[in-house]
């Protein structure tokens, strides 16, 4: 009887050890994944762009582009009588504004 209890206890302890080893491996993998994700995220944060249209422009350049956009919008909405064409030209102006800024103010020589 004592022998059977000792064997069952040994089996329970072995099963418990096996379960604990499995949990430790899972926890180690989880920690490794978190560290990798944290490392990748910090790297991406350091490398990310500002994502704004006027990021590298000074105040005068932004003012010139803003004034040009307002004048162009006023001319479009005053001189064009078709609503569909007004909307299309406004969308075209909004889409071409970044290209205009690069062409007008880019500091790189070509």
Map the helices and strands:
Elements: H1 2-47, H2 59-79, H3 83-105
What does it look like?
There is one protein chain. This protein has 110 residues and is mainly α. The chain is built from 3 helices and no strands. The chain has helices at 2-47, 59-79, 83-105. α2 runs antiparallel to α3. It is rod-shaped, with a radius of gyration of 33 Å. It starts with a helix and ends in a 5-residue tail after the last helix. The relative contact order is 0.06. The model has no long low-confidence stretch (mean pLDDT 84).
Tell me the span between the first and last alpha carbons: 92 Å
Mean pLDDT: 84
Percentage of residues assigned to helices: over 70%
- Helix tally equals 3
**Tell me about the biggest sheet?**
none
Looking at the structure, what is the overall shape? rod-shaped
Rounded Rg: 33 Å
Helix-strand category:
mainly alpha
Descriptive keywords:
about 110 residues, mainly alpha, single chain, about 80% helix, rod-shaped
Question: Concise description?
Answer:
By secondary structure, this protein is mostly helical. The chain is 82% helix and 0% strand. It has helices spanning 2-47, 59-79, 83-105.
